[in-house]
Design goal:
With 235 residues, the protein is α/β, with parallel strands linked by helices. The chain is 28% helix and 15% strand. It is built from 7 helices and 9 strands; from the N terminus they run αβαββαβαββαβαβαβ. Helix 1 packs across helix 2 (37-45). It binds 2-amino-2-deoxy-6-O-phosphono-alpha-D-glucopyranose. 2-amino-2-deoxy-6-O-phosphono-alpha-D-glucopyranose binds next to helix 5.
């Protein structure tokens, strides 16, 4: 556990930077949302060599063009890609047009994901794998949960503008990553974090599957960690 959002972002940066320096051909899984913004701000300002790094994003809304200000394509360009020397052909974001199998093939061809950055929804979702998603699921189109639509409405002018569906890496896909770095901040995530890390492993809480992964680094601020038993916490 770390004291603040900035401390979480700084630690996440240290992890990603060390991995890219050690393996310039790193295959990096990327997340969107508000949580990784501090990490991306640090990466954008850094001097890492991204020229041989390959990236795969977790998810994308259906029905938004890549240029739409709320699309995850636009998010990645705005917050990271335009600031670093990444090779555009090495960046991959799923599209909701039924290309899940091709996306999976690209991950396999890249040798699998070395480090997957992950956030968590207030309902325990990972990527856009909503409660009830199979632990063996692969990259596919999904319907968004009412809670997710409500939570993400803050980014749109009106709740009616939030897409009802998306494309997401599957839980099975995410679990094949060699290392997973889960980031969560704020009181709004405390219950989901508690259910994910110290509750039963159940498809009702997609992130609880992470208890079965051998190499997960969890970065939390105090508020997100506030419902965890003390014995689970290190700094
Ligand atoms: C979004 C994304 C997830 C993200 C999560 C948390 O809907 N699909 O990949 O991790 O919800 O978002 P935030 O960091 O904004 O709380």
């Amino acid at each position: 556990m770390l004291p603040t959002y900035e401390a979480v972002s700084g630690r996440a940066f240290d992890v990603v930077a060390a991995r890219i320096r050690a393996s310039p051909q790193l295959v990096l899984g990327l997340a969107t949302g508000s949580t990784p913004l501090g990490l991306y701000r640090r990466l954008a300002a850094g001097d890492l060599d991204w020229s041989r790094v390959t990236t795969f994003n977790l998810d994308e809304y259906a029905g938004l063009s890549p240029e739409h200000p709320q699309s995850y394509h636009h998010y990645m360009w705005l917050h990271l890609f335009r600031h670093v020397n990444i090779t555009p052909a090495r960046t991959h974001i799923p599209s909701a047009t039924g290309a899940g199998t091709a996306f999976e093939a690209r991950i396999a061809a890249a040798g699998g994901i070395d480090l997957q950055i992950l956030g968590i929804g207030a309902n325990g979702h990972i990527g856009f794998n909503e409660p009830g998603s199979s632990f063996g699921s692969r990259t596919r189109s999904v319907s968004l949960a009412a809670r997710t639509i409500a939570d993400n409405a803050r980014f749109f002018d009106r709740v009616e503008d939030v897409p009802r569906s998306a494309c997401t890496m599957g839980i099975g896909t995410i679990m094949e990553s060699r290392v997973i770095m889960l980031m969560a901040c704020g009181k709004v995530k405390a219950e989901a974090v508690s259910r994910a890390l110290q509750g039963p492993v159940t498809t009702d809480v997609p992130a609880s599957v992470l208890q079965r992964h051998p190499n997960v680094l969890v970065l939390l601020d105090e508020a997100a960690a506030s419902l965890l038993s003390k014995h689970l916490l290190t700094s």
